[in-house]
Amino acid sequence: MKLQDAFFNWLQMHIVSQARPDDEAAKETLDFFALILREDHGVSQVSVDESDRMKIHIAYEQEGIKSNQSFDRESAEKLLDDINSNPIYNNQ
User: Which pLDDT does position 88 carry in this prediction?
Assistant: First the structure.
């Protein structure tokens, strides 16, 4: 899996896990993508900046080098929107 794809999947699950803290499947999936980032790509020290209205920024360290990735907010939040719009998963 490419680094950018792993980060995007991790970010989507990060967003879902924050919005649904009791969702064990979301937490397990988040942990899975975190493992891929660590073991396959040597990523550590991940932080998320959601202050931008249009993009979500991820700062991280990869093998001692600090880097950044940015993702379109709407795309990153789509999985949560899909979950929330599905009556099977909607807790409301």
Answer: 75
